[in-house]
């Protein structure tokens, strides 16, 4: 039996007070950041000095956005027991798998601000701009999604309009991020994560016991299908788990919000930071996804047939207005922590990848760079608000971003380990992967007969690449080669003639496989070798005022008595 529930609405005054309290409090926190320490490097990556606690909290808060738990709940409602696990576990692994490769990225370019800078030093502008473009597009889409979520939340839980919610969220996030950039994002993420965890710990069990407790939920299992009650549902694995698993490396490598924190965290804390963020994200998102499973066991019908209404629907139906207010803060906090990270990522990409490495031509003006970063935030906020106001269907754009990130994974990682990869190999591999992805994803060619078999073979190579790279990151080259080979052969044996029926999974693997194949073949034809030491020489800080101040401060110590302040100033 299906149950239809209506949403409780907070008053206009209550919602405005909650928004003012949240964004006012967040802005107040940023006033504690010392403004006299601001420079371009602090604005982008906090001078690579973020500690373990702040780094882990920031990564966790950034990765938990409004779509995370809405989608996790929908997953629980659609696939049952295994749904939240697939969503939360694979999302958590996206954080984890940047760590082994991140150590290599930091070793090669200890003073980098973006992964694009490293690729620019390795290959040049065309490869770097491909990476920068995919990150710009991805961050704009993410910003738009978060503003849209804010508008929808305000419209659903209050008499205010959708556009009003979007505008308040946009101005609120910009207000506390504009001056200090990445530092403000990290600093406020800590407080936002504490609020997220506290509210989640209260709301999830509150909903469970308000609906009757675990016994009622267990009784509802009788209303579920056999697939929904299975922890190893093939339906969930093939339609959600496997595509998410394939996306793990794509998001880990392609998302600037992750790599920005990688370059900002103290290098001694990279492992502990990303391991902790992995556990934190998984626990919170899987827990929130269980609300969708609760709705399924009760036979709840999503309001207006929209899965995104499940969590607010359950909260507003079973809990008091106080809890609804807490839930409101939970969503606003989650989307704001990601939106401010998107603004920081966008500003860093334009500052470093566009201006620093291409427009400035080696003559970077730190003040102008900082101005460009802030204007990027303002422009991005306006674009995000406008796009969100039109409620565009973002599926197609997300598809292309996913394809780009999938196609760049092997070229980016291999470029940091293999000295024979060229700029031409990198660019050709990404473009080929994107083109073949589109053909298979949108079925521009019929996936039957020889064509279907060809694309499946590329996908099997892609599966081997994904497993191989994961094993390589943690266990080394030979473990990666063996694991990848076994995975590709297993897929060939078990999935031939079968994989073509699952378009999303097929196309994602094709992007990996085809880009890898082109990159390897073209690189084997190259006889020149690249000196990786050149990367650190080509990537540095843009504003050395802090380094100069420290050097001048230390010159009085016996070990530095010979330092020449004039020479230091000239070198900076």
From TrEMBL:
This is Sodium:proline symporter. The lineage of its organism: Bacteria, Pseudomonadati, Pseudomonadota, Gammaproteobacteria, Aeromonadales. It catalyses: L-proline(in) + Na(+)(in) = L-proline(out) + Na(+)(out). It is a multi-pass membrane protein. The chain crosses the membrane at residues 6-29, 50-73, 85-102, 129-154, 160-179, 191-211, 231-253, 274-298, 318-336, 369-388, 394-418, 425-444, 450-471, 478-496, 502-525. It comes from Oceanisphaera profunda. GO terms for cellular component: plasma membrane. Keywords: Cell membrane, Ion transport, Membrane, Sodium, Sodium transport, Symport, Transmembrane, Transmembrane helix, Transport. One of its GO terms (biological process) is sodium ion transport.
């Amino acid at each position: 039996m299906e149950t239809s529930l209506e949403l409780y609405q907070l008053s206009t005054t209550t919602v405005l007070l909650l928004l003012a309290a949240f964004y006012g409090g967040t802005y107040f926190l940023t006033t504690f950041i010392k403004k006299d320490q601001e420079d371009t490097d602090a604005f982008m990556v906090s001078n690579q000095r973020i500690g373990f606690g702040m780094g882990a909290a920031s990564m966790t808060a950034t990765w938990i956005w409004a779509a995370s738990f809405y989608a996790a709940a929908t997953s629980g409602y659609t696939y049952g027991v295994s749904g939240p696990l697939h969503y939360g576990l694979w999302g958590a692994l996206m954080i984890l798998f940047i760590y082994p490769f991140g150590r290599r990225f930091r070793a090669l370019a200890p003073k980098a601000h973006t992964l694009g800078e490293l690729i620019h030093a390795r290959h040049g502008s065309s490869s770097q701009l491909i990476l920068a473009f995919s990150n710009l597009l991805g961050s704009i889409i993410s910003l738009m999604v978060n503003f849209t979520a804010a508008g929808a939340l305000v419209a659903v839980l209050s008499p205010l309009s959708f556009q009003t919610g979007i505008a308040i969220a946009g101005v609120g996030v910009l207000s506390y991020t504009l001056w200090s950039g990445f530092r403000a994002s990290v600093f406020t993420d800590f407080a936002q994560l504490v609020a997220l965890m506290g509210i989640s710990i209260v709301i999830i069990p509150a909903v469970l016991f308000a609906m009757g407790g675990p016994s009622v939920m267990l009784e509802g299992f009788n209303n579920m299908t056999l697939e929904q009650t299975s922890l190893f549902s093939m339906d969930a694995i093939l339609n959600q788990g496997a595509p998410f698993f394939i996306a793990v490396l794509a998001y880990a490598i392609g998302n600037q919000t992750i790599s920005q924190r990688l370059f900002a965290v103290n290098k001694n804390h990279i492992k502990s930071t990303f391991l902790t963020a992995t556990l934190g994200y998984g626990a919170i998102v899987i827990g929130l996804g269980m609300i969708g499973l609760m709705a399924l066991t009760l036979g709840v019908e999503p309001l207006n047939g929209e899965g995104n209404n499940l969590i607010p629907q359950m909260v507003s139906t079973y809990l008091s207005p106080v809890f609804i207010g807490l839930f409101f803060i939970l969503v606003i906090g989650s989307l704001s922590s990601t939106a401010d990270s998107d603004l920081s990522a966008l500003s860093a990409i334009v500052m470093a990848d566009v201006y620093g490495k291409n427009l400035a031509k080696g003559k970077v003006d730190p003040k102008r760079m900082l101005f460009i970063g802030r204007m990027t935030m303002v422009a991005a906020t306006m674009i995000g608000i406008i796009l969100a106001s039109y409620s565009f269907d973002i599926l197609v754009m997300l598809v292309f971003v996913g394809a780009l990130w999938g196609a760049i994974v092997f070229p980016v990682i291999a470029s940091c380990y293999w000295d024979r990869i060229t700029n031409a190999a990198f660019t050709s591999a990404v473009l080929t992967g994107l083109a073949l992805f589109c053909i298979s994803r949108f079925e521009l060619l019929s996936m039957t007969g020889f064509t279907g078999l060809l694309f499946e073979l590329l996908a099997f190579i892609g599966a081997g690449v994904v497993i191989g790279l994961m094993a390589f990151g943690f266990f080394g080259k030979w473990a990666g080669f063996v694991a990848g080979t076994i995975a590709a052969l297993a897929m060939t044996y078990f999935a031939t003639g079968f994989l073509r029926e699952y378009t999303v999974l097929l196309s994602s693997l094709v992007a990996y496989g085809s880009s890898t194949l082109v990159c390897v073949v073209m690189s084997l034809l190259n006889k020149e070798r690249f000196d990786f030491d050149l990367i650190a020489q080509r990537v540095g800080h843009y504003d050395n005022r802090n380094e100069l101040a420290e050097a001048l401060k230390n010159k009085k110590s016996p070990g530095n008595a010979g330092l020449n302040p004039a020479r230091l100033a000239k070198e900076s």
